[in-house]
Amino acid sequence: MGLFSKKRKDITLRVYRTNQQAQMPAEEPEQIPEPLVAHDEEQVEGMWEKCPECGSVIYTDDLIANLNVCTNCSYHFRLSARQRIMYTADEGTFVETNADMIGTNPLDFPGYDSKIRKIRGYTNEKEAVVTGACQIGGEPAVLAVMDGFFMMGSMGAAVGEKITLAIEQAVREKLPFIAFTVSGGARMQEGLISLMQMSKTSAALTKLDEAGLPYFAVLTDPTTGGVTASFAMLGDVTIAEPNATIGFAGRRVIEQTVKQTLPPTFQTAEFQLEKGFVDMIVPRGALKETLAKLLKLHKGGAAK
Amino acid sequence: MSEKRSAWDIVQTARDPKRITSQYIIRHVFTDFMEMHGDKLFADDAAVIGGVGFLGDIPVTVVGQEKGVDLRDKVKRNFGCSNPEGYRKSLRLMRQAEKFHRPVICIVDTQGAFCGIGAEERGVAESIARNLMELSRLKTPVLSLFIGEGGSGGAIALAVADKRAMLENALYSILSPEGFSSILWKDSSRAAEAAELMRMTASEIQEMGLIDDVIPEPEGGAQAEDGGKFAAEIKKYLIRNVNELMVEPIGSLLEKRYAKLRSFGQNAVVTK
């Protein structure tokens, strides 16, 4: 943990109130979550955070030092894309790509422009995915890291395009590709164009596959809808964070369809492991090491 | 039907209980059709009809989403809402088509994949994702025909194709207008308003460049009880296009298919 407890000036830290979105049935948040603390780590000091799972009150510094995992019950707080990258990439190795790519408003959807402008201001991100190349335990890889705080990580044209470009970069530079998914699904406001990003990203993965390059999907809370039904489920190795919600249809929609109340374990990472759709559940503290090992194991076997 | 109709009118036509379904097309367009059942993994999903038959004198594989024609049939077919087995059966039959160099005709008509417990347990998302990936590189021509509702992931799983055509009153959308309005406005009664906004009708989708062709329908929409009259138009369209796709060398066909998929949404991003 020593690696992460020291202050890093290159990346700002945010802690979010996450329990208000513990279940995310759709692409649209009820309200935009406000960051609990400001973007500067200095302001975090002396503050406390309550775990939405067990209710423990945790000193924020301790929480950050523990990779935003509850020190009492191991609840994995949701992370921004930048936090995720900080926890994954070797320090100073991440080189972002297509940072300025944004979506337009293809349907002229009322209010979409102002809404997304507001979210840009508040998250300091331009879109719901951050892409780039980095090293993990000294092993190079291309990353696409979704940000659940940006319109619920919904996939519109820009998200699909950035992910596709990242896959293409991996193919071009003969690098493994790693996606961290968190998404409510397709972005409603961009209509059918959002749906098309499912086929685009999935098709791009055939190029990686045919080049013999590995793709590791890391499914984080929550991964649902069109993202699950496309690149999230197409990894050579599929990893999930403990207790992450992973599914296709929203819980409420299923409950309304089948007229039953679903058990709390439904659509969790553990459920997906039991049903055979994820290879392993890896706690956040072991994730970087796991990815580094997987990267080494997939550098090419000796068999003829 | 040349006068401008509202999107909501078209939604009603697409959902007309008397509208044609995949069974109509299979009966009237193809000859010697033989149905193949099951995904060879778990079950047979009656929400998808798959099999082989002749399109004129061309052997083809047909995979069609089927909502059912009467109440009993609708229940059997889960109202066209497929479980994972439906997508896995589709992919199995498409791979068979690839092996025997048969073109694939996909018929899209679904509100979406089934939102059930079993569907989640058996990985409906994985089954759709796998279809999207494998269809994009399937080494045989694929043509997708939208005949009614084309809802969400459930529709796109059969719509990765060399040619995408929609009947004039068919729909293709990210989800139903009811679902769209309930998610965005917490009010499913604003579905008509949502339908206008969503651009889910054939002509609007063609304008966006997301489908290739729109096939005009008879006055009042395509009705199943027309004795197969409209099927003749569909057959003509399919024969002409399948013939065009079949003469294309498979390498360039796949390159074009990929280029098309790759282009989706590229005009909806900017770098600032």
Total domains of chain B, how many? 1
Q: Strands across the major sheet of chain A, in which order?
A: 3-5-6-7-8-9-10
- Largest sheet report of chain B: 7 strands, mixed
What is the terminal separation of chain A in angstroms? Answer: 40 Å
CATH class call of chain B: Alpha Beta
* Mean pLDDT rating of chain A: 87
Our measurement of the CA-to-CA distance between the termini of chain B, rounded to an integer number of angstroms, reads 43 Å
Strand content of chain A: 15-25%
Tags for this model:
heterodimer; A: 304 residues; alpha/beta; 2-enoyl-CoA Hydratase, Chain A, domain 1; seven-stranded mixed β-sheet; disordered N terminus; B: 272 residues; acetyl-CoA carboxylase activity (chain A); lipid metabolism (chain A); zinc (chain A); ATP binding (chain A)
Layout of strands and helices, then pairs:
The complex is a heterodimer of chains A (304) and B (272).
Chain A: H1 2-5, E1 48-50, E2 57-59, H2 60-65, H3 81-88, E3 95-97, E4 101-103, H4 112-123, E5 129-136, E6 139-146, H5 157-172, E7 177-183, H6 192-210, E8 215-223, H7 225-228, E9 237-240, H8 251-258, H9 269-275, E10 280-281, H10 284-297
Helix pairs in contact in A: 5-6
Chain B: H1 7-14, H2 22-29, E1 31-36, E2 48-55, E3 58-65, H3 71-76, H4 84-99, E4 104-110, H5 117-121, H6 124-135, E5 142-150, H7 152-156, E6 163-167, H8 177-185, H9 191-198, H10 202-207, E7 213-215, H11 229-247, H12 250-263, E8 269-271
Parallel strand pairs in B: 3-4, 4-5, 5-6, 6-7
Antiparallel strand pairs in B: 1-2, 2-3
Helix pairs in contact in B: 2-11, 4-6, 8-9
